Amino acid sequence: MSVLSEMLVNLLRKPFTILYPTEKVPIPDSFRGRVAITDEKCIGCSKCSLVCPPQAITMVANLREVEFKGKVLVRKKKPQVKVFRCIRCGLCQRHCPTGAIIVVPELSRTGTDREVVVT
Q1: What is the number of domains present in the chain?
Q2: What is the DSSP code (8-state) at residue 98?
Q3: What is the CATH number of the domain that holds 55?
Q4: Could you tell me the pTM of the whole model?
Q5: Residue 19 — left, alpha, or beta (φ > 0 → left; ψ -120 to 50 → alpha)?
Q6: Residue 99 covered by a domain
Q7: With a cut of 50, which residues of the chain have pLDDT below it?
Q8: Angle CA(42)–CA(55)–CA(90) in degrees, nearest 5?
Q9: Neighbour count for residue 80 (Cβ, 10 Å)
Q10: Nearest 5 degrees, angle CA 105-CA 109-CA 25?
Q11: How far is CA 30 from the centre of its chain?
C-alpha cells in the first residue's frame, strides 16, 4: 500500500482518539483519583500522616469535640493533604479508623502550585 492511498483511507475514517472536552473519558472502577476528607468523622489520630509514603499529609491545629464509639473526644489536630505530592496509594484510607479519609474515583485537578492542600 502506498503512502498516498493510506492517507486517503485514514482521512475518511473516524478518528481513534477521544475528543476530551466534549466527550468524557471513562473512569475504571478501581481508579484512585483524589483524596477527600470528611471533617465530621476525623478524630485527629494522625495515623494517616504516619503511614503516608511521600509525607503528603500533615496534621494542623484544629481544636474541637468529636464523637467516636459513643465517647466525646477533644480533637486537637486535623489532616491536611498536599494534593500534588500525594501518590494516591490509598494507605491513608486503609488505616483511618473512622473512614474520614477516602480516595474517590474522580479526576483531580492539575496545576503547578505544589502547596495546594485539601483540608
Answers
A1: 1
A2: S
A3: 3.30.70.3270
A4: 0.72
A5: beta
A6: yes
A7: none
A8: 60
A9: 16
A10: 55
A11: 13
